[in-house]
Amino acid sequence: MTKLFKILYLLFCISFLFNCKKNEENKTSEIKKTSWKNLLTRNDLNDWIVKIKGHEVGNNYNNTFIVEDGVMKVSYKAYDSFNNSFGHIFYKNPFSNYKFRMDYRFIGEQVSGGPAWALRNNGIMIHCEDPKNMGVEQNFPVSLEVQLLGGDGINERPTGNLCTPGTHVKYKDSLITRHIIKSSSETYHGEQWVHVEMEVRNDSIIKHMINGEEVLRYSKPQYGGNVNFNAEFWKTKQGMPLKSGYISLQSESHPVEFKNIEIMEL
What we know:
mainly beta, 2 domains, 7-stranded antiparallel beta sheet, 2 helices
């Protein structure tokens, strides 16, 4: 074997090993990107940001949000009255293309002073504005709300609906400007756990799934409608596509529990 051939052979081996390592790293990165990530691995609220109406961002007023044994809970044990203390807890990072899933259930009784419409009512807010930009007296972030409803024991009350605080979407090829689009889900009475999942594709298609069944699909989320807080700013964004944002869970006066909170970036 000539000296030149040995050198070329060595270079080939080095290149081959480098490419193998690079391909393995790419595969590992791809697997990591498309794996489910638990957003409550710390079993605390260190990765979350609380914003409750009437209080500065970061103030978990009356310990409204707590975590116990891997379950996030909305608690009103320290409340005498709700007093319009609408709250949201945001995961620390924004997202754009992803799947999100969790289980939820309503428990106990609504706190005194809670509005009638908020009975067994909560939501997952997606493509949310930055919580740091919310006003002290702001009720809800500009976002898309995957509305979570529990049955009242008598009436039909589908869950997985869409509410649109400061936003519009296209549904069945039409721009929808009303506040609520109802889903096709069943009603879930009592304190049973319900599994909810969403697939969010930037400013394209968004799907809601309840207990494994698709119950609502819409597209082209965009800014639109009246916003009571910082109205002049939001007017400048009317009609612009809504491509990404934070994910938050609500506190709207009825105790609720969340578990298995997971995300998969796509």
